[in-house]
Amino acid sequence: MANIKSQKKRILTNAKAADRNKAVKSELRTRVKTAVKNAGAENSDESLRVAVKRLDMAAAKGIIHPNQAARRKSRLMKRVNAGA
pTM for the full model? Predict the structure, then answer.
């Protein structure tokens, strides 16, 4: 355990950030999975739009790298268009 006060605070804030990041990444996986599953269905456009939006938001907040967001959006579009 750290003895320095600022380091104790950093441990707490890092744990909070890790929890938040884990939740966002989990949501990303769920949204992408839903968009792929709904490919060709009537609500496929909506689920795809939400998945892309969440990827962009995660990249904007620094949870994932912008290039990773672009790559994942590209792969998602390929999968959805192939399934449609």
Answer: 0.86
